[in-house]
Design brief:
two-stranded antiparallel ribbon
Length: 481
């Protein structure tokens, strides 16, 4: 384990977080809020410690894959611990375990909250909650790779970091150099965010709301910025948010293909077609199912579109209390929680690509019983999927299910009903936010015990980092030098 290199990376993460805290500090100055001092104190400490850890590049830059996974896991934990301090220092979320749950939910773009009265929070704290969605959406280390001075590294440091943090079964390079790939991804991310902000402002949404709602949409996070939720905005603003939630759930590599005018390659994506097909079918089924309850087709279509886009992309915004919908519609939303968005997007969940590959492999296995001598391969976008990838996805599914079952089992000690516990784990593990039952869109996770909040906090980090980086922290062999 190259501890000196890991310390160097953690130092850069702290420096980045210190810079990011400047924005909520400015917000506090604009709104003349005393709680802004909490950001000033945290910013100063993080900046100094970060500089001391990273001002000198280590001599030994050998960086293995396990080093990359551990560095990413520790980076996200450190980022969350430091990010929670303004809540605690200001007293707006006085208990550290609650503040940690809240900020982990922010950085992992989950949107699950322990805050019962969002309107009681200061503007700078609301801004910080939403901004953490945007920071964590594309990935903290992806941004660090775009700015950190690692150009001459030939040991694979950047690739290992990117593989550990990027969501999805595979990570590829858009251009030969990973540093340039990181810049391209963040360039697309920033451009789409700016377009969304402009459209919301032009549409009549207040500037503060436009910024915070755009941060949550881009990062597919979903923290509510008021007790009223997203339902207070006009229908045309809800439509804009719906469209962009779905757009941010698309693999960003496909947007790069559009920039290169490779339209055939873009349209060839099976994951994109499956993603859009699932969304369309879900919207139609829910619209038909709730039209009698809602009253008219237009409202039913608007509500179903928004909630389907919000849940499958793991954003978590809500314009209505879907906890009151018929069971059929709620079960569709529960299914979408597990499906998730596309690989390489800012969305969470199991990922459409994994699901597509598993379905294709299962069909091939069934056909092999009929024609045992036939040789069948799984293909995605016309290319063969290697057996190692299929085995990796199968292993991922097993670990995924084990963590799900254990998490539901342990938080059941708190005495909530089965639907609440199952949806709470589903909502946090898949980085969605609101669940069903007692953790529905109009409720919070505040009533869970400290132990349960700790388990759900781990689930959020494990879900965002694709399980392995967090699990490796518990392996003694990983820590050997």
């Amino acid at each position: 384990m190259n501890f000196s290199m890991i310390k160097y990376i953690l130092g850069w993460v702290l420096r980045l977080e210190a810079v990011c805290m400047g924005l909520p500090l400015i917000t506090a100055v604009i709104y003349q809020e005393e709680s802004g001092f909490a950001f000033l104190i945290t910013l100063a400490v993080a900046g100094v410690v970060g500089f001391l850890c990273s001002y000198k590049k280590p001599k030994n830059r050998t960086f293995r894959l396990r080093d990359g996974f551990v560095a990413v896991a520790l980076s996200w934990i450190l980022l969350s611990v430091v990010g929670a301090m303004p809540f605690v220092i200001s007293g707006e979320i006085p208990h550290f375990y609650d503040a940690l749950f809240e900020i982990v939910s922010g950085f992992t773009t989950t949107g699950a909250s322990v805050v019962k009265d969002v309107d009681a929070l200061s503007k700078c704290m609301v801004f910080w909650r939403s901004f953490t969605h945007w920071i964590g959406g594309m990935g903290v280390l992806v941004f660090v790779l775009a700015i950190i001075p690692m150009e001459n590294n030939s040991s694979g440091t950047t690739m290992h970091l990117m593989r550990a943090e990027s969501p999805g079964p595979t990570v590829g390079k858009l251009v030969p150099r990973i540093k340039q790939t990181a810049k391209i991804l963040y360039g697309i991310y920033i451009a789409m965010t700016i377009i969304l902000i402009v459209l919301l402002i032009v549409g009549g949404m207040p500037i503060f709301d436009s910024l915070t709602m755009a941060f949550g949409t881009a990062g597919t996070g979903g923290f509510a910025i008021s007790n009223a939720g997203a339902g207070v905005y006009a229908p045309h603003l809800q439509i804009i948010l719906t469209i962009f939630m779905i757009l941010f759930g698309v693999n960003f590599n496909l947007y790069y293909l559009l920039l290169l005018k490779k339209f055939k390659d873009f349209l060839r994506s099976e994951e994109l077609r499956a993603y859009l097909a699932i969304i369309t079918i879900a919207i139609i089924l829910i619209t038909i199912n709730i039209i009698g309850q809602v009253g008219d087709l237009g409202t039913a279509l608007l509500q179903s579109s928004f909630q389907v886009g919000s849940i499958i992309t793991t954003t978590g915004y809500a314009t209505t209390d879907f906890n009151l919908w018929p069971q059929f519609s709620k079960m569709i939303l529960l299914f979408l929680m597990f499906v998730g968005a596309c690989a390489g997007s800012t969305g969470g969940g199991f990922k459409v690509s994994r699901l597509t590959i598993l379905v294709k492999n299962t069909i091939n296995e069934i056909k092999s019983f009929v024609h045992p001598r036939s040789v069948r391969v799984v293909k995605m976008d016309g290319k063969k999927v290697e057996r190692e990838v299929i085995q990796s996805i199968s292993s991922y599914l097993v670990i995924y299910l084990i963590i799900m079952v254990l998490s539901v089992l342990f938080i059941s000690l708190d005495g909530f009903d089965a639907l609440t516990n199952f949806s709470a784990v589903s909502a946090t593990f898949n980085n969605i936010g609101p669940g069903l039952g007692e953790v529905g869109p109009m409720s919070s996770f505040a009533d869970y015990s400290i132990m349960s909040k700790g388990i759900l906090t781990f689930d959020m980090l494990a879900g965002r980092l694709e399980l392995i980086p967090m699990l490796l922290l518990f392996s003694p062999s990983v820590w050997k030098k």
